[in-house]
Amino acid sequence: MVKARELLKKNIMLVALVVITIIFAIGTEGTLLVPQNVTNLISQNGYVVVLAVGMLICILTGGNIDLSVGSVVALVGAIAGTLIVNMELNIWLSILICLAVGILIGVWQGFWIAFVRIPAFIVTLAGMMLWRGVALIVLDGLTISNFPQNYLKLFNSYVPDVFEGEFNVVSVLIGVVICLVIIALQIISRINKKRKGYELENLISTLIKTVAICGVIIALTVTLGRHNGFPMILILLSVVVIIYGYYTTKTVPGRYLYAMGGNEKAAKLSGIKTNKVLFLAYVNMSFLSAVAALMCVARFNSAAPTAGTNYELVAIGACFIGGASAYGGIGTVPGVVIGAIFMGVLNNGMSIMGIDSNVQKVVLGLVLLAAVAFDVISKRRSKNA
User: Which of 189, 235, 306, 329 could form a disulfide linkage to 262, CB 3.0–4.6 angstroms apart?
Assistant: First the structure.
């Protein structure tokens, strides 16, 4: 009973996601899970996943956030539009320049935060105004549209199906391969833990979790196969999630983030270069903001002065709903992905049902407050126990 309660507590948002998906699937009479709508959900919320992963890295360092990501998205998008559409520069060179701009912005903000020790809230609030202003200057207040097709295809196309037919077989094959990799990794992980004498997770719970994950993946790829197939944007998101998931859990620099978030002074005394860790967290955040900007201009086929508005709030919300602690040191990449999907399903489901946009904001605000309150109350109870 205790183990079941602990398992439920660890996966509370996953359970909540399943419940809310079922509710909206019934409320929308199945429209939510129609193949075309599932594809739209992925494309509409792709930028949220990318930004939320970067925001998680910042939050892990001690509850720090970045308020400038929306403005960075607008600026990098404006530069992309200027280079690719107006100047007709090579798209690959343009992409490299945009990513370099993102990194430079991160270096600028990271310097003030990590080495001068100006609070991240102040630096990124200044960045929110600064980079939005620069974006308006670059665009001259106008919108740049009609990106070339070879650029749009990088983000808006689908993995081609080698088999002819209405159903995309390659999409399902990709899902099967992913499931086989997950099963192999679980087996290897258990063997390594057993060899090193670590405590093993209950075999039944591991099997249930693996079967559930593989079931969701197969269901998703079958659904995608009934539309246009596996979106290229989903491949990009998978790469980001896998790389950062591995980085935060399996590498020494990744563990530094958790150590710093737990107790920065103790981490510094143990030899961790905390200034460098904080600096790289903000460089990485701006880099991922540039990636999100390239995704957004491809999705909207335009670079607008208003692009990226409130993106930072959505990313922060996804992190906290996904289990990140407001105090830092706690949070996972899979949790953030669940948080982003939760917000996407909530928004999409309410939109399909015709719920007023103002009511949607009220619901999202209450969900975010509930997620943070749950974290704070849980910590208080564990301290008092």
Answer: 329
Whether residue 140 lies inside any domain: the answer is: no
Domain span at 63: 12-67+99-117+232-299+306-384
HEC states along the chain?
A: CHHHHHHHHHCHHHHHHHHHHHHHHHHCCCHHHCHHHHHHHHHHHHHHHHHHHHHHHHHHCCCCCCCCHHHHHHHHHHHHHHHHHHCCCCHHHHHHHHHHHHHHHHHHHHHHHHHCCCCHHHHHHHHHHHHHHHHHHHHCCCCEECCCHHHHHHHHCECCCCCCCCCCHHHHHHHHHHHHHHHHHHHHHHHHHHHHCCCCCCHHHHHHHHHHHHHHHHHHHHHHHCCCCCEHHHHHHHHHHHHHHHHHHHCHHHHHHHHHHHCHHHHHHCCCCHHHHHHHHHHHHHHHHHHHHHHHHHHHCEECCCCCCCHHHHHHHHHHHCCCCCCCCCCCHHHHHHHHHHHHHHHHHHHHCCCCHHHHHHHHHHHHHHHHHHHHHHHHHHHHC
**Residue-wise pLDDT tens digits, 67-123:** 999 999 999 999 999 999 999 999 999 999 999 999 999 999 999 999 999 999 999
Residue 104 lies in a domain: yes
Q: Is residue 163 part of a domain?
A: no
Asked if pLDDT for residue 377 goes beyond 90, the answer is: no
Q: Is the pTM of this model over 0.70?
A: yes
Instruction: Report if residue 129 sits inside a domain.
Output: no
